[in-house]
Specification:
Layout (H helix, E strand, L loop, with lengths): L8 E7 L2 E8 L4 E5 L13 H4 L4 E5 L18 H14 L5 E6 L1 H12 L4 E7 L4 H7 L3 H6 L1 H5 L5 H19 L10 H11 L4 H10 L1 H6 L12 E6 L20 E6 L6 H4 L1 H13 L6
Parallel strand pairs: 3-4, 3-5, 5-6, 6-7, 7-8
Antiparallel strand pairs: 1-2, 2-4
């Protein structure tokens, strides 16, 4: 059974030397959606039809994921390349700017893209991924280091891939089922979709290679300590087991026009666990006028 809705279009675009797969619906200004680990475009299944009412929604498979190209080199997953992918996507789709939405790793890319190319963003929306400077500060605390143990495990060669694929990709499924608060959020079909995407040849190593580049990427982006001049909304599921809510505190020091919406009794998988509320908050932000100079 296809996971594509009848009025969604699946397509490819070549940019920055890779072919990227995306799913799209709607016409109008561009909203580009970037997923996290261990996901793919499907993470935005509740947002695609919602925002297609007024926008051209594009939910991409990040490089290395699902149907997008999976370069073998570790360096292919540096933040520099991921930022250039986004730039090429916006331009290749025929736009000069977009609303950029990112969750988890997609959020990390979105933050960094906003600092590199603020003129290409009308608004920025980040879900459950702290500002890069706050994340770096958090990794200096025992509290967050304990939550981020998997980041260090992913630095090991081969072993993470073996764990992720063992027992029919059980760990991939458990990434969702063990973290989510509402246990009805993910159906068996949803979990199988994520497992099938992870099972594509080369995908697991590509996905883990994001983490193998995390520390160089974090410390290669000094400009993220400056004041960001893009109107920004952060949405945060309060029961995130991987990222502490305290990482959000003080973000307004780094973003001129910033607002945050916390969602209680909600996990890291915020746009899938509470889609109606996430969509409501995004609509309110999109329809609001930016703060004056």
């Amino acid at each position: 059974m296809s996971i594509l809705a009848e009025n969604w279009t699946s397509d490819f675009i070549t940019t920055n030397k890779v072919k990227l797969h995306y799913v799209t619906q709607g016409e109008g200004p561009l909203i580009l959606m970037l997923h996290g680990f261990p996901e793919f475009w499907y993470s935005w299944r509740y947002q695609i039809p919602e925002f297609a009412q007024a926008y051209k929604v594009v939910a991409v498979d990040l490089r290395g994921y699902n149907e997008s190209d999976k370069p073998k080199e570790l360096s292919a997953y540096s933040i520099k390349e991921l930022i250039l992918d986004v730039k090429g996507l916006i331009e290749g789709l025929g736009y000069e700017e977009c609303v950029l939405v990112g969750h988890d790793w997609g959020g990390f890319i979105a933050w960094n893209f906003a600092y590199c190319y603020p003129q290409m963003l009308s608004k920025l929306i980040v879900l459950n991924l702290p500002h890069p400077t706050k994340f770096k500060q958090g990794l200096g605390t025992i509290q967050q280091l304990l939550k981020s143990w998997y980041i260090f495990f992913f630095q090991v060669p081969l072993l993470p891939e073996l764990l992720l694929q063992a027992d029919d990709y059980r760990t991939v499924g458990e990434a969702f089922t063990k973290m989510v608060i509402n246990k009805n959020t993910f159906s068996e079909a949803d979990l199988n979709a994520y497992k099938d995407a992870a099972a594509k040849r080369g995908a697991l190593t590509a996905m883990v290679n994001y983490y193998r580049n995390l520390f160089p990427s974090l410390f290669a982006t000094q400009q993220t300590q400056a004041l960001l001049n893009v109107p920004t909304l952060m949405i945060w599921g309060e029961n995130d087991l991987a990222l502490g809510q305290e990482l959000t505190y003080g973000t307004e020091e780094y973003v001129r026009d910033f607002q945050i919406r916390y969602i209680p009794n909600c996990s890291h998988w915020v746009q899938q666990e509470r889609p109606e509320l996430v969509n409501q908050y995004i609509w309110e932000f999109l329809n609001a006028e930016p703060m004056g100079e």
